[in-house]
Amino acid sequence: MMNFRNILIADTDNGTIQTSKTLNVRFTEFEATVDGITSKVQDALEDEEGIILTDGHGMKILDSQGTRGSSFWRQSARKIYAIKESDFENLQAIKKRRTSGRREDTGIDNVLERIEEVVLAADSLKHVSGTIEKLVELANLSTTINLEFQRVTTVPLQSRFLTALDNISPKVVAAIENRGGVVREKTRNIMAAFHSDVDMKRECVLRALIWYLGEDEPTLIKDYLISQHEEAERELELCTIAIYTTRSTEDLLEPPHDIGVIIEAPKYISDMLVPYEPLTCQWFITPVPEDLRTGLLLVPRVRTKTESGLNLDQSQD
Questions:
Q1: CA nearest 279: which of 268, 287, 271?
Q2: 244-291: per-residue pLDDT in tens?
Q3: pLDDT per residue over 105-146, tens digit each?
Q4: How many CA atoms lie within 13 A of 257 on its CB side?
Q5: CA distance 269 to 104
Q6: Kind of pairing between the strands at 51-54 and 81-84
Q7: CATH T-level fold of 3-99
Q8: Cα angle value 56/92/275 (rounded, 5°)
Q9: Which residues are CB-neighbours of 257 under 8 A, at least 6 positions away?
Q10: Number of C-beta neighbours around residue 140 at 10 A
Q11: What's the pLDDT tens digit per position in 33-74?
């Protein structure tokens, strides 16, 4: 069976990647490796200089178990660039110089890097300037909220929330295992992914906790496939509060292609500021709909009950 993937042939200019043309590569399962795709691109370009395959951030794609097989290389929203070796070396040198002079990371630097991608991808769009302004506003919002929380409480918001969440995780898992019934059944697939990395554990705990509290997890956390883009847009326009993710498959272990927070309908915070789902919960400072009341009112408790412990009995305050 033949698969295909568009490879973006790119040059570099002062540290930015600029697409010059697109190459449609067809390949078999056997050829679905870094070396196999590189060889096909090299043959098509008929250029003696070697090429490097990179992701959308200009990071070299390495041969590994995760990059072998058609599931990684098949066409998707993920961009793959082919850059000449000399251009790639220049790109890395420029990035290294920029990194060495950076301030303490506040989240803004990551957003500014993504702005370059937006400009590159949106050359033909009319509202590029508006998009960039929104990204800058999001960067400022992220910094302001975290710094203000730290100023008032002398405790970093993000690290406090995640530490508290980690502290209650064993109690949540034990409570769900003891509960059984509908809750056990509803959380079966979620808890199957629990024993992976720490980020996935946090996500599983938050998802399972919503079911445990008697609410529907999909009401708050909405998972979509990338192919369901139009359906997702329609549904999210009707939401008051939601966290949404998009993936190429339904497997929770697959890193999301996009994560966002909806507050009062518009997309409020994007994955540029929220790298994975547990961090979205720290942003809910807003009136809460009735069908999400129990789950979202738990968030401030997670942030505060770190020493005395969190009581998971819904009958108690």
A1: 271
A2: 888 888 887 777 788 877 766 544 444 433 444 554 554 444 445 555
A3: 555 556 666 666 655 555 545 455 566 566 666 666 666 666
A4: 17
A5: 22
A6: antiparallel
A7: Ubiquitin-like (UB roll) (3.10.20)
A8: 40
A9: 76, 77, 78, 226, 246, 247, 248
A10: 14
A11: 999 999 999 999 888 789 999 988 888 999 888 888 888 898
Q: Where are the domains of the chain?
A: 3-99, 103-153, 157-304
